């Protein structure tokens, strides 16, 4: 919700105005260690509260987590915009590679998520993710960096990359270089 609000430059309330309920997680993008909020009609929230208690949910001394969530909400515009910019830079790096192995639709990169299309079937999305995660002696010798990139094999032909609070512009540059290294190795 917050990534969409920042990308569309509109208030979250406008996006959710026709929803019956909304759940918002405060971790990752907003930088809080944990926490979420649920909003909806009074009877819906009362039932959710009852079920949460029934299942043993609840926290004491949760003020510290609430404080972290408030900081995340106060700085979300800047933080999420940075995540979106990093995702865009990564996607542009893929396009600049002009590799037969992978491509990206830049028009579809609106937030902190980049869907990378994998062509040719070799390597598969799972294999590509394994190559991006692993660090080899050759990589260290050729690039001077030991970089492990965690992406998710989304489908038979797609890998998903997601930026969040803890991924910097420098990390993004390293991830681009790692993908370039892996793409070259796979083409050899």
UniProtKB/TrEMBL annotation:
Query: Does the entry feature the keyword Lyase, yes or no?
Result: yes
- TM segment ranges: none
- GO molecular function ontology, one term from the record: L-allo-threonine aldolase activity
Pfam families, alphabetically? Beta_elim_lyase (PF01212)
- Ranges for domain Aromatic amino acid beta-eliminating lyase/threonine aldolase come to 1-118
Chaperone is among the record's keywords? no
Q: Which keywords appear in this protein's UniProt record, sorted alphabetically?
A: Lyase, Pyridoxal phosphate
Q: Which cofactor does it need?
A: pyridoxal 5'-phosphate
Gene Ontology cellular-component annotations:
cytosol
The highest taxon in the source lineage is Eukaryota
UniProt-listed GO biological process terms? glycine biosynthetic process; L-threonine catabolic process
Q: Which family does it belong to?
A: Belongs to the threonine aldolase family.
Q: What is this protein called?
A: THA2 aldolase
What is the source species? Probosciger aterrimus
């Amino acid at each position: 919700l917050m990534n969409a609000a920042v990308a569309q430059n509109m208030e979250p309330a406008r996006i959710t105005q026709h929803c019956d309920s909304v759940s918002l997680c405060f971790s990752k993008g907003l930088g809080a260690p944990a926490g979420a909020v649920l909003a909806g009609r009074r009877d819906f929230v009362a039932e959710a509260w009852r079920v949460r208690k029934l299942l043993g949910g609840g926290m004491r001394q949760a003020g510290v987590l609430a404080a972290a969530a408030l900081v995340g909400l106060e700085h979300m515009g800047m933080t999420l915009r940075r995540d979106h910019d990093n995702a865009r830079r990564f996607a542009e790096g893929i396009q600049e590679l002009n590799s037969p192995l992978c491509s990206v639709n830049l028009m579809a990169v609106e937030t902190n998520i980049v869907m990378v299309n994998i062509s040719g079937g070799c390597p598969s999305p799972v294999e590509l993710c394994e190559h991006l995660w692993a660090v080899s002696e050759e990589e260290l010798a050729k690039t001077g960096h030991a970089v492990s990139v965690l992406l998710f094999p989304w489908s038979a032909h797609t890998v998903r990359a997601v930026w969040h609070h803890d991924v910097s512009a420098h990390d993004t540059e390293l991830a681009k270089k790692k993908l370039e290294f892996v793409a070259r190795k796979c083409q050899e």
